[in-house]
Amino acid sequence: VQLQASGGGLVQAGGSLRLSCADTGRTFRTYAMGWFRQAPGKEREFVAAINWSGSSTYYADSVKGRFTIFRDDAKNTVYLQMNSLKPEDTAVYYCAAGTGWTSSKKEFQGYDYWGQGTLVTVSS
Fold first, then answer.
1. What pLDDT score does 24 carry?
2. What's the start-to-end Cα distance of the chain, in Å?
3. Can you state the percent helix, strand and coil of the chain, rounding each to 5?
């Protein structure tokens, strides 16, 4: 599994961005996928996760109703659609892949592989 995140950038508050995370491996569809973020001076925090089939998702309370995680197995890619962005969403966003599907997918310890991160900056 090799994950490549992209799509970050600078956006005004209230705007939207879509992050992508592509896997160059052959086993993408067997993994649950997650997005985490880390703001300057803060710990990495869970954002969203989706199971291997796309039938189940988890979201952090802070992004519920604004962010949507979805996957396209034909493209070996997981997406994070971010709407109604706020300055507090500013962070480096990381995608991750892991086996199984439990509440552990809300924790960074629940993942085996990580992408390199993409910076999202939301201006007020």
1. 85
2. 37
3. 15, 50, 40
